[in-house]
Amino acid sequence: MRRKLVREHLGLLKPDNVSSINANSHPLPVKNDYDWGSHEDLLVEDPLSPAFWKLLTSTAETNTEIFRNIFHAVPDDASSCLYGSLLMPVRTTAEYDAFVTQTPYGHVADYSMPLEYIVRLLSNVRGHIVNMPLHYLEDVQLIHPGFNPSVNECTGLSLRN
Questions:
Q1: Helix, strand and coil in the chain, % to nearest 5
Q2: Is pLDDT of 113 > 60?
Q3: Are 117 and 123 in contact (CB under 8 A)?
């Protein structure tokens, strides 16, 4: 199950034929078909190997860059100008405002991008994995002055006046 899930996240599963019924179409106790020993299976066999780590990080980096350039996806650590020519951090609300476009969420951020460019980039997306933004809006003060949080065992925060 771990190998199949990792392969799904990395885009290494072969597409299912939705019109055919096979062992994977049935619930338990029917066993699923799995291609043990295939090239894709061997790529995810050892999650601690340097080859697996390189595959994982390169896939996440590629997907992140594509989504950053096409959709200006947020949250994100860095913004980019058209076609990825300049990377800037998104650490303040002003940088956020400069990065986010007025197009609806889930749409292409810049309608002037050529369709061929968009299709070419999106065809390189593999699986679902992207880099986790660690510095997104890190310079924005989220707890406003006057709010005095204290640790509470159940909720983590409580208000004290």
A1: 35, 5, 60
A2: yes
A3: no
